[in-house]
Specification:
One of its GO terms (biological process) is phosphorelay signal transduction system. It comes from Rubinisphaera italica. This is Transcriptional regulatory protein ZraR. It is a single chain. The protein has 459 residues and is of the alpha/beta class. The longest helix is centred in the C-terminal third of the chain and has 19 residues. 38% of the residues are buried. It binds adenosine-5'-triphosphate (ATP) and magnesium ion. Adenosine-5'-triphosphate (ATP) binds next to β7, α7 and α15. The site of adenosine-5'-triphosphate has 17 residues, from β7, α7 and α15.
Length: 459
């Protein structure tokens, strides 16, 4: 079976005949298609990630095509969507592009054309073939610096190895831990998380391993701990760098023996959970300073994944802002549109709070500025101040360089940002740049900025 035929396609329309016709056409070329008449029933399945592609009509009684897209995005799904309509107007095409549809077809569509466009979108979204946005569980990224993270997660999916995640605060360590669990054979078992920094040291042991009745004052009943709750699933120990020395020894014993004992108990319990841990501390330094046990560090660090901070993933800024704005905007409203000047500031800002900080900003914008265009003045003042001064990349502050080189640098930077902003839709990029399409494509190609993922449907 080809990889395309393993990608499940959902067609949504309230006309049974149309559904039947569409499914027949797609199945005739070995594509795996099904149809649903009710958008309300479809959305939860889409949100669960059951489909690789959604095709929707525009005029549907229950919810129109645009509302369907907004609900799908609101439910956190980034599944590519193709809109097929017999009621297309220029306005609806613009609206569809604004909502980021992968393709927009007006009827009548020839069968061959339909199949070609569907296959193209499916191909663009095959994770191994695309250098566009990648999605793994709830982890989204479009920046090449995250490729190795995605590759590692896939490589270790079938192993049982312990994983240590290193990354700054808010960089997405927890999301990554989830993705590891979701990709593993344990995905149907529990994913249990313990934030070692959030639980007082004297309670943490019982939190992890449970306690027997009367183990300490206040232990009125027996309670199972997180290791037991995790069963054959994954236990995620976040902020492991904060673990007291005493607990480090106890954890080491669990990892070595595969057994633990409830506090106040004397019977060994078998630990079957896979351990994933994370810290924003420099653990090697902590080991050197004698604050973290070297033997524990080596046991935890079988596979190490370093999550780059957001400032090293500029390609993620636009797509994550878009994702969060769509997620947080009220269902009846449209997300704001970030203008290029504002995006340029956002891309230069250093995001000390990483994705959490970006998410908070996007949520605020989605609520306060729904449907509006976001210019520089609409950004939080601290971002404007820092985003403007943190310009390290401007060619014009460099030492004397020939005009040609400076122009090339400018072109590349300008186009790169613009393409990011329009999410690869080159036709839209040409329009904003007020350039002839052919000339725009030539420049994009000259600077090596094309990729299959940038050949959007509207180009
Ligand atoms: N790649 C991503 N795609 C989508 N959402 C993300 C991504 N990375 C992080 N997030 C979101 O950003 C927020 C912060 O992420 P997370 O809690 O995983 O960070 P963290 O590194 O564990 O932070 P801390 O060190 O403060 O615990 C969460 O709401 C998470 O859902
Ligand atoms: Mg965390």
């Amino acid at each position: 079976m080809s990889s395309l035929s393993q990608q499940k396609i959902l067609f949504i329309d309230d006309l049974p005949n149309l559904c039947e016709e569409m499914v027949t056409i797609l199945r005739s070329v070995d594509l795996d298609a099904e149809a649903m008449l009710s958008p309300h029933a479809a959305i939860p399945r889409i949100a669960r990630g059951e489909f690789a592609l959604v095709i929707t009509g525009l005029v549907i009684a229950e919810l129109n095509g645009f509302e369907i897209i907004q609900r799908i995005r609101g439910a956190g799904s980034r599944v590519p969507i193709i809109m097929v309509t017999g009621y297309g107007t220029e306005q609806s095409a613009i609206e569809a592009a604004r909502l980021g549809v992968a393709d927009y077809l007006t009827k009548p569509v020839a069968e061959a054309e339909l199949i070609a466009r569907v296959k193209r979108v499916l191909k663009q979204n095959l994770p191994q073939e695309s250098d566009g946005p990648r999605i793994l569980a709830r982890m989204i990224s479009a920046d090449p610096s995250m490729n190795s993270v995605f590759e590692k997660v896939k490589t270790i999916a079938s192993t049982e190895s312990r994983v240590l995640i290193l990354g700054e605060t808010g960089a997405g360590k927890q999301v990554l831990a989830h993705a590891i669990h979701d990709q593993s054979r344990r995905k149907k078992e529990p994913f249990v998380e313990v934030n070692c920094a959030a639980i007082p040291a004297n309670l943490l042991e019982s939190e992890l391993f449970g306690h027997e009745e009367g183990a300490f004052t206040g232990a009125s009943k027996r309670r199972i701990g997180r290791f037991e709750a995790a069963g054959k699933g994954t236990i995620f120990l976040d902020e492991i760098g904060e673990l007291s020395f005493d607990l480090q020894s106890k954890l080491l014993h669990v990892l070595d023996s595969g057994k633990f004992c409830r506090v106040g108990g004397n019977k060994d319990q078998v630990s079957q959970a896979r351990l994933v841990s994370a810290t924003n501390r420099d653990l090697i330094k902590e080991v050197e300073l004698g604050r973290f046990r070297a033997d524990l560090f080596y046991r935890l660090n079988v596979i190490c994944i370093e999550l780059p901070p957001l400032r090293e993933r500029p390609g993620d800024i636009s797509i994550l802002i878009q994702h969060f704005m769509e997620k947080f905007v009220a269902p009846s409203q449209k997300p704001p549109i970030i203008m290029p000047e504002a995006l340029s500031i956002l891309t230069r800002y250093s995001w000390p709070g990483n994705i959490r900080e970006l998410q908070n900003m996007a949520e605020q914008l989605a609520i306060m500025k729904a449907g509006e265009k976001i210019g520089v003045v609409d950004l939080p003042q601290r971002i404007i101040d820092k985003g403007t001064t943190e310009t390290q990349t401007s060619p014009f502050v460099a030492e004397s360089i020939p005009f040609r080189t400076a122009r090339d640098q400018f072109e590349k930077e300008y186009l790169g940002r613009l393409i990011m902003q329009v999410q690869g839709n080159l036709a839209e990029g040409a329009r904003i740049a007020e350039m002839d399409r052919a000339q725009f494509y030539r420049l994009v190609k000259k600077h090596g900025l094309t990729s299959s993922s940038h050949q959007n449907a509207n180009t």
